[in-house]
């Protein structure tokens, strides 16, 4: 589908370019050769930035053959090949990037996408999982993960029979629209043109609209009326139901001579509109929501002529291109409305087709699919949509797009660049097969309304036949059913009560051939803790902190890491006591106890029983040990002091890589000499206690400071309260080694 991206400017989003100083591998390139290759690289970059991918590939490949390479050259080569649907070459260069470590997350996603394009779903899953670990909140990864498990389901949805058509050319043909026994479509064929203008994307003729009479000579399409076609890109096209208006896509042009560029120095696409009176088109007028700074295209008008659906890369969308809708009112067209995240993804959604039934068909590379672009059906439900992949044979590992189906849903057309076609992109006709009705739905948590994956679902008919499947990462299930049968559906998933119900089916088949039935499962009681760890001073979150959760009775240990937001969440057993240890190299570890005894089921924030603010381990950092008391003039360890020193023992065991000095301080009362001697004996006594309880002597030393480091003004001869003197009588540990 090489032409689709150009026909919509950036329908397939250009790879994100990492800002870096290129690291060249041409160590042996010297002098004039280096200057020449640098110049060729600039020419190649310019071609790439201008979407001239064929030209860019030729220049980049020249540099690769001369061993003049860097991350940008590999990335742009991989991107260019993928734009031209050469997934194998794209994989070769993207893998060089990923294996070298000089990659950005989008490189990993593109590698997964390329492997899907050639049907290698094992590799696609491998890199999708890697991408999920690199990037949060990208719905493409969630929808497409474990794609191999979804393929059998997509292929089982076969409800169509395909037929090749005679009017395809050796070029790209796509964007079919059927009206009044004629099929209108977009093609690169300008074989009889006196002058052939070519667009640089793949060095092929610009796109024009053609029509073919399906009751006449279908092998000879006609060039459509000249008020639509110009020397640049024109199409796809659609008509209103009664045929008195036409909407179509066109390059942003001025007097049909020079395309007008926007802020990004690219030529955008716009939607134009003409009225048809007695078979004559009025002069095309562009719609008011167009812009030179972004593209709008692929129009589809509703049966009542009041709603127009289209694709656009205007700012504020979810990804590369999104699907929007505008309404026609007495005062004109409304502001474009994005159809939302159930339709649009971080990828590209395009080629909307709104059916008379209200069902929206569209093309996407962001939803779960067989590879490349796939075609989807979106049925309105409440304020949103239920989206279903149309499955095989409509969809394949390659690009499948620009779907049209007639009002009775008996036949239709779409385009694909799958193997076996006549040209680049070919148009296929299909007939619908009466395979009954589809039962589809989602599995939800009845309390939170969050979608659940990996539920085991059984559908049992009145004869006792049972079909089982698991809800996938896209959270949906699909069964083929018959309306004259009775069914019983059950669902099971860990942590939830089993679900079962008899299905109540309608008497007649719905317009979409699909019945939606969502399952809401009640969660079982559970206990758990959650929280967010952060630095004490800056309050920045801390990822990858290890939390060890140890069952005090069984000694079973569960280990989790905080995520990139510093958050953790752990489910626990009822009526159980736990030891918790938080640790990360470079931070002081923390320990706490927690019990689920007499605790109400649900999540408990750990900051209710442990301070989740962490401090960095730094040389000479002092930590005061509270409540270390000695009898007057004594240095033996009292029972109350032993309790606090036991905490120091645990602290040192939890932080095995630090060495400390234990310092003892007195107040200023008494002679300096006696205070110095007493503090040293007390410090040594505390150290001996700690060593006797399992800490290596080479990790801790004793230091008596006497009254040399008072914390306040209470020096000799100064009258102070007992509370002020107590501030100076203290025990501290100081970090002296790591």
TrEMBL record:
Record keywords, A-Z: Cell outer membrane, Membrane, Signal
Localization, UniProt: Cell outer membrane
Sequence ranges assigned to domain OmpA-like in this UniProt record: 617-738
CDD domains named in the record: OmpA_C-like (cd07185)
One term under GO cellular component: cell outer membrane
UniProt key word rRNA processing: no
Main location class: membrane
Keyword Signal: yes
A Pfam family assignment: OmpA
Signal peptide: 1-27
Entry protein name: OmpA family protein
Provenance organism: Tenuifilum thalassicum
């Amino acid at each position: 589908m090489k032409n689709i991206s150009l026909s919509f400017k950036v329908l397939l989003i250009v790879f994100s370019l990492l800002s870096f100083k290129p690291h060249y591998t041409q160590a042996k390139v010297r002098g004039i050769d280096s200057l020449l290759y640098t110049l060729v690289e600039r020419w190649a970059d310019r071609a790439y930035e201008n979407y001239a991918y064929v030209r860019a590939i030729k220049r980049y490949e020249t540099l690769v053959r001369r061993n003049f390479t860097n991350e940008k050259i590999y990335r742009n080569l991989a991107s260019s090949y993928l734009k031209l649907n050469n997934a194998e070459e794209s994989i070769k260069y993207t893998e060089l990037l990923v294996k070298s470590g000089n990659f950005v997350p989008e490189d990993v996603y593109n590698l997964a996408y390329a492997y899907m394009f050639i049907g290698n779903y094992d590799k696609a899953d491998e890199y999708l999982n890697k991408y999920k670990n690199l990037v949060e909140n990208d719905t493409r990864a969630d929808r497409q993960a474990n794609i191999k498990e979804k393929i059998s389901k997509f292929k089982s949805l076969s409800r169509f029979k395909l037929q090749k058509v005679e009017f395809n050319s050796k070029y790209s043909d796509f964007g079919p629209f059927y009206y009044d026994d004629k099929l209108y479509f977009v093609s690169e064929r300008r074989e009889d043109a006196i002058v052939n203008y070519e667009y640089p994307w793949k060095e092929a003729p610009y796109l024009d609209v053609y029509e073919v009479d399906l009751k006449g000579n279908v092998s000879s399409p006609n060039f459509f009326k000249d008020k639509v076609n110009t020397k640049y890109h024109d199409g796809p096209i659609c008509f209103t139901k009664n045929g008195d208006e036409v909407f179509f896509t066109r390059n942003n042009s001025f007097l049909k001579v020079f395309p007008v560029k926007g802020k990004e120095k690219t030529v955008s696409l716009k939607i134009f509109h003409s009225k048809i009176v007695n078979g004559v088109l009025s002069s095309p007028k562009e719609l008011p929501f167009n812009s030179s700074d972004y593209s709008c295209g692929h129009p589809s008008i509703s049966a009542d002529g009041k709603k127009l659906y289209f694709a656009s890369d205007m700012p504020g969308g979810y990804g590369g291109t999104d699907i929007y809708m505008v309404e026609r009112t007495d005062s004109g067209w409304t502001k474009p409305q994005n159809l939302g995240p159930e339709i649009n993804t971080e990828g590209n959604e395009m080629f909307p087709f709104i059916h008379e039934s209200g069902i929206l068909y569209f093309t996407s590379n962001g939803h779960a699919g067989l590879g490349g672009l796939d075609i989807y059906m979106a049925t309105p439900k409440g304020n949103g949509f239920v989206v279903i992949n149309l499955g095989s044979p409509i969809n394949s590992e390659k690009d499948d797009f620009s779907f049209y189906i007639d009002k009775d849903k008996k036949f239709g057309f779409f385009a694909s660049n799958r193997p076996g076609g006549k040209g680049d992109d070919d148009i296929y006709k299909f007939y619908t097969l009466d395979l009954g009705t589809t039962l589809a739905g989602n599995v939800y948590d009845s309390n939170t309304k969050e979608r659940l994956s990996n539920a085991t679902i059984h559908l049992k008919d009145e004869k006792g036949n049972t079909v089982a499947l698991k809800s996938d990462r896209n959270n949906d299930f699909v069964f083929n059913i018959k309306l004259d049968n009775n069914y019983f559906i059950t669902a099971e998933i860990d942590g939830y009560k089993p679900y079962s119900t008899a299905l109540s089916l309608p008497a007649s088949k719905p317009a979409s051939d699909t019945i939606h039935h969502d399952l809401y499962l009640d969660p079982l009681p559970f206990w758990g803790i959650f929280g967010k760890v952060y630095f004490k001073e800056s309050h920045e979150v801390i990822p990858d902190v290890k939390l060890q959760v140890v069952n005090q009775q069984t000694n079973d240990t569960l280990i989790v890491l905080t995520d990139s937001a510093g958050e953790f969440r752990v489910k626990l057993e009822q009526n159980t006591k736990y030891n918790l240890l938080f640790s990360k190299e470079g931070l002081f570890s923390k320990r706490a106890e927690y019990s689920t005894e007499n605790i109400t089921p649900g999540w408990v924030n750990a900051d209710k029983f442990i301070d989740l603010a962490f401090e960095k381990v730094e040389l000479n950092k002092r930590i005061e040990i509270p409540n270390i008391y000695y009898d007057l003039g004594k240095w033996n360890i009292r029972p109350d002091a032993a309790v606090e020193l036991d905490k120091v023992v645990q602290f040192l065991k939890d932080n095995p890589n630090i060495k400390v000095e234990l310092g003892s301080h007195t107040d200023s009362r008494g002679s300096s000499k006696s205070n110095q001697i007493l503090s040293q004996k007390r410090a040594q006594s505390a150290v001996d206690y700690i060593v006797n309880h399992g800490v290596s002597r080479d990790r801790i030393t004793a230091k008596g400071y006497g009254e040399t480091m008072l914390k306040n003004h209470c020096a000799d001869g100064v009258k102070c309260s007992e509370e002020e003197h107590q501030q100076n009588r203290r025990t501290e540990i100081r970090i002296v080694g790591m």
